[in-house]
């Protein structure tokens, strides 16, 4: 009965949802459409018609117009939009081509061969082809037989090989395999000791090792599917229904979203996943929208594991540049991944042959009524008239409470505003891990960027069944019999092109410094104050959290509040996590953009990917670190803030067999951006009166 009511509620809300999404003409920052992917495929294939050449499309995405062109068009949006172009990375004759296609003229504008280090994004198609190879490879079949395993229950998965000082290497990846007999949790049952190397250009196994035999962990206790669980069960949580009689409070026009005092553009990229652009907030006093964020997305995610042994040392992944957050996006499940009041949007990317692939329900957008408080205050006025013979009486009158305490009348005033926010959500499943990516917009002007880590741990099969048996470093935690959860990190680097009330901004470090009181004018011996420092060049803006107390603000030095402060937005970070690998370790050379928690660079359209454009087997020579070495001027310039969010993950038994969500993130918060509290006059949501309900 409860599930039926949920379904009815979901269908009723869907009626409102369909009316939210309206038709529109192309916005210059719109993601490529299925027809545009098809057009790109046709144009490129026509340019290289020879049947001897096997063309694969590793990346197709929007070649966004230069920022000044977009800003010029925004000043007159009824004018003709700039031409639509696509940026393509294709593999052709074992070479990587960077191609720009003009979609309005169906012409290839440029085509150059990349000769540097590294390879492009892996496609799902080539990974799927690679994992099928072991099933017909005789040495592998013999190894499986030797272990007494059923070949039909063995599943293999792809792993990038990294870079460890080689001058040059072929485009290869490694395969590791798992045993699914008796469980859907394949990553919990690794077949240790077997490693296969596949040449992706030749699509054949070029190296094979069977180094040792380790017991395969048991299937028992690894299932996470609800239908497979056995008693005793945990408590059933009570459900709750969110009803919006007038439908959701936001509108979607193509990719443009408007809600409360916010408007922004939502895009999708096969590598980055969600892209938020042109976020502006309405200033009630100034009676206009004001710029906050030109463009923001996850630029890269670095996931190094801490096991230096033969089967594990190379596991140092770049989830965005090697596997693609967008390509790894999964369809969201209504009423589970997203609440009943959510609106769902599809996304598209191109497969390796260029044909469009649809991800249904890739995004959900919903108003979040989480029971939080936007702001509140209770005021106790000065006691008034003496009232005899009465100890305590409470009289409620509107928002005022008259309290008579100890024969004195006190007027108590309470004002509260419930908080509501707008959330844009996507989930990317990269191998064993599921990443919940949230952008949350608040009426107060804050943007909260959240990341949730869940899914299955990357585990290692061992002979140990109890910690008492372990006499050596196993580089992780014994989670269950024969299973080690290996220590590892997650570092997400965000690209944030903040345009705070305009393009030209500065980066200010408000250092909190202790001042000693040396005279006798005060009984205090110390206090702290703010000493502001404006970064002149890129080197001034490299920040490692935890070294000294500081508040970081992006300000517009050309705009001031009524009382004279520079308008700004402050970065409020989460945990102060930094890499622990040596700076000269090969994985850290590639992931050196995580050495600082904050970088600031001048805007450059080509500088989007913190780990470089070609990340697979890269050598760290085209990264945020290298660009920043130019030490360019950043004061009162169009600047980009790069912020890295980190997790050191020491696995524990509660993370097994599936991991409860571990959350992190940060906030971009207005700081002297408004002349006063922007939600002072925000009206609370209308009350919904349920029939047959009491107060």
Q: What would a concise description of this structure say?
A:
The chain contains eight helices and 35 strands.
Explain the overall architecture.
- The structure is a single chain.
- The longest helix is centred in the first third of the chain and has 19 residues, at 2-20.
- This protein has a 20-stranded mixed β-sheet that branches. A four-stranded antiparallel β-sheet has the order 2-3-4-5, with helices on one face.
- The chain has eight helices and 35 strands.
- It has 695 residues and is mostly beta strands.
- Among the domains are: 124-224, Nuclear Transport Factor 2, Chain: A; 373-418, no CATH class; 495-695, Beta-galactosidase, Chain A, domain 5 (Distorted Sandwich), CATH 2.70.98.
- The relative contact order is 0.12.
